[in-house]
């Protein structure tokens, strides 16, 4: 495992320290990070190819993933924000947390969604900068990917929603740089509440690493979200 991580660090150049002279504005805004890159190991590539094959008949769809929110997404969410200008400013500068670490050292993942079965699958390779207990992934990193995959499943099946409740059982530690599969499904909908659950398994499905249940609540267009740091609220303005 440690050898595999060291190889990965060399491949991605992470051992050389931060890149100099790279300004924030020069970042490529529209790179789809859910496509294979040199840090992906063989297992990751194999699973990716398997899901791409499943996507050929249209039952599964690969979900593109960007570091920065495409500004077109403002249209999807601006109804919830009283200050559209500030929202646009924030969306153009803020980075999606699971995409904020360098290639190969943090969260490498690709998600696929099945609209007929209301399922989302995430193939996830957790890099060496996500260490918790020596040699294993940090629980917060696992929770991040679980929340993100459950969230995609909730949003794609029910609309714009936020995590209201998340329960995780961590059953086995996940080795750093290994590949796991997060399998989510929408269990039921009650009013604005979406109940979504998942399990995290090894590639051969023999090891159950974690299980989670969650409640997502669809945002109410009558309530507004204020994103000013000093006055953050999500409440009914009427
Ligand atoms: C990689 C790609 C990633 C893309 C996906 C990203 C996924 C990431 C998602 C997140 O991490 S979101 C960040 C973490 N979550 C938050 O910050 C949410 C903070 N909480 C809130 O803003 C509000 O509490 C919330 C929007 C969840 C609900 O507020 P509302 O005012 O809309 O709910 P309301 O109080 O009217 O309750 C509506 C229903 O939800 C229920 N409910 C509310 N909060 C709950 C809760 N915490 N647990 C269980 N149920 C809850 C509530 O009981 C009620 O049920 P009933 O309709 O049966 O009466």
TrEMBL record:
Organism: Vulpes vulpes
Protein name as it appears in the record: Acyl-coenzyme A thioesterase THEM4
Signal peptide residue numbers: none
Membrane topology according to the record: Peripheral membrane protein
Subcellular localization, as worded in the UniProt entry: Cell projection, Ruffle membrane; Cytoplasm; Mitochondrion inner membrane; Mitochondrion intermembrane space
Keywords (A to Z) from UniProt: Apoptosis, Cell membrane, Cell projection, Cytoplasm, Fatty acid metabolism, Hydrolase, Lipid metabolism, Membrane, Mitochondrion, Mitochondrion inner membrane, Transit peptide
Gene3D superfamilies on file: Hotdog Thioesterase
Top-rank taxon: Eukaryota
InterPro entries: HotDog_dom_sf, THEM4/THEM5_acyl-CoA_thioest, Thioestr_dom
Main location: membrane
Pfam family, one: 4HBT
Catalytic activity: decanoyl-CoA + H2O = decanoate + CoA + H(+); octanoyl-CoA + H2O = octanoate + CoA + H(+); (9Z)-octadecenoyl-CoA + H2O = (9Z)-octadecenoate + CoA + H(+); dodecanoyl-CoA + H2O = dodecanoate + CoA + H(+)
Any GO molecular function: hydrolase activity
């Amino acid at each position: 495992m440690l050898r595999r991580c060291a190889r990965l660090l060399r491949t991605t150049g992470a051992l050389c320290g931060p890149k100099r002279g790279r300004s924030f504005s020069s970042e490529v805004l529209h790179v789809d990070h859910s496509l294979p890159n040199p840090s992906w190991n063989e297992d990751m590539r194999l699973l990716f190819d398997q899901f791409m094959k499943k996507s050929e008949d249209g039952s599964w769809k690969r979900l593109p993933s960007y570091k920065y929110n495409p500004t077109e997404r403002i249209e999807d969410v601006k109804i919830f924000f009283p200050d559209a200008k500030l929202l646009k400013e924030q969306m153009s500068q803020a980075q999606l947390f699971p995409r904020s670490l360098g290639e190969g050292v943090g969260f490498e993942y690709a998600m696929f969604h099945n609209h007929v079965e209301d399922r989302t699958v995430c193939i996830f390779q957790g890099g060496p900068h996500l260490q918790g207990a020596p040699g294993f992934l940090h629980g917060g990193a696992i929770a991040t990917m679980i929340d993100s995959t459950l969230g995609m499943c909730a949003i794609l099946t029910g609309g714009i929603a936020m995590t209201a409740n998340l329960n995780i059982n961590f059953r086995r530690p996940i080795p750093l740089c290994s590949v796991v599969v997060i399998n989510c499904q929408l269990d039921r909908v009650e009013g604005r509440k979406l109940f979504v659950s998942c399990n995290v398994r090894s590639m051969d499905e023999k090891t159950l690493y974690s299980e989670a249940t969650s409640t997502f609540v669809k945002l109410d267009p009558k309530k507004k979200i204020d994103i000013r740091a000093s006055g953050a609220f999500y409440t009914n303005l009427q």
